[in-house]
Amino acid sequence: MGRLDTGRILATLAVIMFACLAYVPTIVREGDIVFALTDVYLYETMINGLLLGGVLALLSLGLNLIFGVIDVVWICYAEVVMLGMYAIFYCHTVFGLPLIPSMMIGIALTAVLGYAIHYLVIRHLVNAQPINQLLATGGLLFFFQSAATLAFGIEFRNLGVSLGSFALTQDIYVSWARLAAFATAAICVLGLYLFLTRSYTGTAIRAISQDREIMTLMGVQQGRMYLMTSAIGGGLAGLAACLLVLQYDVHPFVGLSFGPIAFMICVLGGLGNMVGGFIAAFIFSELIALGGYHFDIEWGYVFAFVFFIVMMFIRPEGLLGKRS
Amino acid sequence: MLALSGVDAGYGSFQALFDCTLEVRTGEAVAVIGPNGAGKTTLMRVISGLIPARSGTMTMQDLDLVATPPHDIIRLGIAHVPENRRLFPRMTVEDNLRMGAYIPMARARFGERLEFVYDLFPRMRERRNQLAGTLSGGEQQMCAIGRALMSGPKLLLLDEPSAGLAPVVVERIFELIRVIRERDLTVLIVEQNVQQVLQVVDRAYVLEAGSIRMSGSARELSDNEEVRRLYMGL
Ligand SMILES: Nc1ncnc2c1ncn2[C@@H]1O[C@H](COP(=O)(O)OP(=O)(O)O)[C@@H](O)[C@H]1O
Ligand SMILES: [Mg+2]
After folding, report:
1. Superfamily assignment of B1-76+197-234 in CATH?
2. Is this structure's pTM higher than 0.90?
3. Rounded to an integer, what distance in angstroms lies between the CA atom of residue B206 and that of residue B211?
4. A218–B151: do the CB atoms touch at under 8 Å?
């Protein structure tokens, strides 16, 4: 019961914050009174925020899945995304494969990488101290960055593909790449949800996150479930890479620009809680977009970080997290 | 059906079971009684492979349990209802039951067994879409037993099924054990309610400080002076 009440208070708070960001500054912009309801650029910003939210949601999805099931945080998750982006870049630009097959190869490679990360590293640390797990996956982060630097150099690369944009109304333009990213993210979230709730394996993945030991009694081999979860998590990183590589340049340190946000989204939503992560992704993306609209894009990030810090004081277990 | 001989087990450097020898024959119901901390739960956990036996032999229908990996024990027909129920609290009753039927041979008969469990516990049918964590204690125990039955076991291990339940509910749990016995299931049960459990089982073992102190038919033990004094408060 207490949780519902806090949830409601939080929702109200979030709405008020949005209202402040979206509405109040609007009416004094450039000395003129502009009503938010008739401000098409504001709508455009909010739509872009929504589209960005889809990508952020997808980005945090794999991380959340892995944490929820295996109880280990992959500090190097964004670096898996980075390697996925390179894989797609090389397949498409260097080896000349069409875009879609390149992306499929990228997803397959990151899934294999996820499997390998669990098999080679995490498997031996499942029952270790959290600090040791963090050190190991943190070490992987530097390993991947350095390996990428050695192998690919530090130049910024991009696919050189532009999907262009289209007019939603006369004044509002939406980029195809962003819309595609959002749609893919939405489909994947839905697909993962159906997998986790409708299939035996998915239900077992949820169950193992609630009680590891008892699943052994049910005839489930824990290690195998973890490997599968890691491969799915890696594949989701690859999918995020497909969407990001359409919009951003790749370089060995690109993970640093969205890794922290992905972690904050997971923590804000309640680590391991995928619905919470989903909501948090949209709160973050709207804060970033609206802050960027009224001030500067940097301010958008500042608002998002401040919101995160304040929330951590009010609700350290995350929006939908369980208290422990 | 189940035979243990000279089994030792423990946690780290602590030894909890010493040289345990025990047998459960097909169709029997056997109880293990003893004070808190005697090692009753440990005994159940060794049988279902959650902790390894350090020495001794264990067989289920002449198949070696010691060499069977923990996740394959259920395939031999052993279902364990653990101490404190251990349901998946944030999953529905029906999803909990579904996990009981995870092994392929049980999956194929999921629908049929689900009906069986719902007929046994009509309450579970009503609550099928409720989260298991929100059930009352007695309902949780029914769900836990139902989950174990979903694999179609030959031998049911029950660890203190009546613990923490109101007297009326305890009655119903023992009633249930009678019903389950009529379905040709073999039962090994750990209980604190010694007086009541001796009325539903054929034989019992008394476990004290990790060793089997006594064994005999339910009748013999309920007439035994020491058992009456120590475990029935008579
Ligand atoms: N996980 C554990 N680690 C260490 N010692 C344990 C553990 N579980 C139980 N023990 C010890 O093993 C002994 C037997 O415990 P248990 O089998 O739970 O007893 P019972 O079920 O008869 O009350 C006790 O002394 C208990 O303290
Ligand atoms: Mg016990």
Report:
1. P-loop containing nucleotide triphosphate hydrolases (3.40.50.300)
2. no
3. 8
4. yes
SS3 label, residue A323: coil
Single-letter amino acid, residue A316: P
**Alpha-carbon distance values, B59 to A19, B2, B5, B6, B154 (Å):** 68, 6, 9, 12, 14
Instruction: For chain B, give every domain's residue range.
Output: 1-76+197-234
- Identity of the residue in B73, B89, B107 whose CB atom sits nearest the CB atom of A210: B89
**Residue A258 — very low, low, confident or very high, per pLDDT cuts 50/70/90?**
confident
- Tell me the pLDDT tens digit for each residue of B66-75: 999 999 999 9
**Per-residue pLDDT, A227:** 95
The ipTM value here is 0.89
Residues B151, B154, B159, B164, CA torsion sign: positive
For chain A, list the domains and their CATH numbers.
2-314 (1.10.3470)
- Ligand 1 is surrounded, with C-beta below 6 A, by B 11, 14, 16, 34, 36-42
Q: What integer pLDDT is reported at residue A162 of this predicted model?
A: 76
- Ligand 1 atom showing the smallest separation from residue B210 Cα: 14
Lowest mean pLDDT among A6-10, A61-65, A147-151, A164-168: A6-10
Tokens of A176: 């195809």
CA distance A126 to A90: 34
- Taking CA–CA distances from A200, the nearest residue in chain B reads B102
